[in-house]
Design goal:
The complex is a heterodimer of chains A (about 220) and B (about 240).
Chain A (H helix, E strand, L loop, with lengths): L1 H11 L2 H5 L16 H19 L2 H7 L4 H31 L6 H4 L8 H22 L7 H21 L16 H32 L3
Helix pairs in contact in A: 1-5, 3-5, 3-7, 5-7, 5-9, 7-8, 7-9
Chain B lengths: L3 E9 L4 E9 L4 E5 L6 H8 L7 E6 L2 E2 L4 H6 L1 E5 L10 H9 L7 H10 L13 H13 L5 E5 L7 H16 L3 E6 L2 H7 L2 E6 L2 E7 H8 L6 H11 L3
The chains are: A mainly alpha (about 220), B alpha/beta (about 240).
């Protein structure tokens, strides 16, 4: 598996997959829908799938002495590494905004989603949706990726829309908490996002392994 | 015991049927797999490499069923799929550096020898290579891990006559070392030059599978050349 992961990084990955991790710093931007950054990192991973198809990567890998299921798992693992790097990077501005910048006016008077643990929960949900919808959809054919990516875009923007609008409803205003206010709620949304990420990814990997075993290359 | 044994392989597509394909590959023998475009050569080869799932049939390498022993078997088998362009924008040396990590028996000396023999510059990228050089690059990867069986889909396509000659000589050298070689082609002169056995496929069925001498004796009528006899069999639809 490690060898396959190295192969993904050295031969298959698009430089954009790495570059778009930097979008995690968008969480510093005031007055910007910061969840969009999660979409960009998924776009970077999508570019790697495009590169892989152009390079006949799946056929090349299928001819190597590896298990077919590991080919699928390595693709997921590569994306998960990128997603983890993004999550760690975007957590930095979140923690800074929750602590030293929590009372800065430009963030306090921000009509859009605040960078807090709720935001991180939504980030994990979007990344999980990418793994479930896009990667899972790709492995139905190991060739066609446009349709699953369009479906993912719709799901990601719907999720962003929900994240950006939910706290405007008075009953849910605590979701936009500043600093460590409503920390119990913030942590529970983060944990829910993490659980959704794990669940969506695990279901997707299992289904993709089954599909990939069946298809002809 | 045959190094590779294929029994009753079948695969149905909407407009094509690969039917009841059986054959064996033996150590120290070169098998030329001939048939016109669309006859089923590539489907057969992709099926025995595990890229295509046959509807029926059994595939054994070294006496082991392929499905249950795929990883171990692929360590001992070399594959090349013609001019397929893998990683066109990566340097050959980088592709080779990754590939070799997967093979326990990767032979760096052999890799260097074939690199020189094929006049390949490892600092070039596949997109900078001619079609013939791409074939050589794919062969380079297939030959560098001391494979006991080589399965090559149209390895001579796009090669100039000199390179073809060199490649066929290489097949003979590998055969003399005890390897089994299966190569598909539609160029009869390649088979005449180096094959020990001929497998002729027509409309998804193996129409003939025997030694070259037997093929000439049984199917080349009235002093026909191999090419003339195959053209006649294709034209008449019978052997």
């Amino acid at each position: 598996m490690t060898k396959l992961l190295k192969k993904e990084m050295k031969l298959t990955a698009s430089p954009l997959s790495y570059l778009f991790i930097v979008f995690g710093l968008m969480a510093f931007l005031p007055g910007y829908p910061i969840l969009i950054g999660s979409f960009f990192v998924c776009l970077g991973s999508f570019q790697s799938f495009q590169c892989a198809r152009e390079a006949n990567d799946i056929t090349y890998t299928a001819l190597l002495p590896v298990a077919k299921s590991d080919i699928v798992r390595a693709k997921y693992m590569f994306c998960a590494v990128i997603e983890l790097c993004y999550f760690i990077l975007t957590s930095v501005p979140v923690l800074i905004r929750m602590t030293v910048l929590s009372n800065v006016s430009v963030y306090r008077h921000n009509a859009l989603m605040n960078a807090n643990l709720v935001y991180l929960g939504f980030v994990l949900l979007i990344l999980g949706l990418f793994n479930r919808i896009f990667i899972g959809g790709f492995f139905k054919t190991a060739y066609k990726f446009a349709k699953p990516f369009v479906i993912f875009i719709i799901a990601a923007f719907l999720t962003t829309g929900i994240g950006e609008s939910l706290f405007h409803i008075p009953a849910f205003s605590a979701l936009n908490a500043f600093g460590f206010a409503h920390i119990g709620l913030q942590v529970s949304v983060l944990m829910t996002g993490a659980a959704a990420f794990v669940l969506l990814t695990v279901i997707s990997v299992r289904q993709a392994v089954k599909n990939f075993e069946r298809i002809d290359l | 015991m045959a190094l590779c044994s294929i029994r009753n392989l079948s695969k149905t597509y909407d407009s094509f049927l690969l039917s009841d394909v059986s054959f064996e590959l033996n150590a120290g023998r070169i098998t030329g797999f001939i048939g016109r475009n669309g006859a089923g050569k590539t489907t057969t080869i992709r099926s025995i490499l595990g890229l295509v799932h046959p509807d029926h049939g059994e595939i054994f390498y070294f006496g082991l069923p392929f499905e249950e022993n795929e990883r171990e078997i692929k360590q001992r088998v070399g594959f090349s799929t013609g001019t397929v362009n893998y990683y066109p924008k990566k340097k050959i040396k980088n592709i080779a550096a990754v590939t070799k990590t997967f093979y326990q028996n990767w032979d760096e000396n052999a890799y260097r020898e074939y690199l020189e023999l094929f006049s390949l510059d490892e600092n070039k990228m596949p997109c900078e290579l001619s079609e013939g050089m791409k074939v050589k690059f794919n062969l380079l990867l297939a030959l560098s891990h001391r494979a006991e069986i080589l399965i090559l889909d149209e390895p001579t396509s796009g090669l100039d006559p000199f390179s073809r000659e060199e490649l066929l000589e290489l097949f003979i050298e590998l055969k003399n070392r005890g390897a089994a070689v299966l190569f598909s082609t539609h160029i009869t002169s390649d088979i005449e030059k180096c094959a020990d056995d001929i497998m002729y496929i027509r409309n998804g069925r193996i129409a003939a599978d025997c030694s070259k001498e037997e093929f000439v004796k049984n199917y080349c009528k009235g002093g026909e050349t191999l090419e003339e006899s195959i053209l006649r069999m294709e034209r008449d639809g019978k052997i």
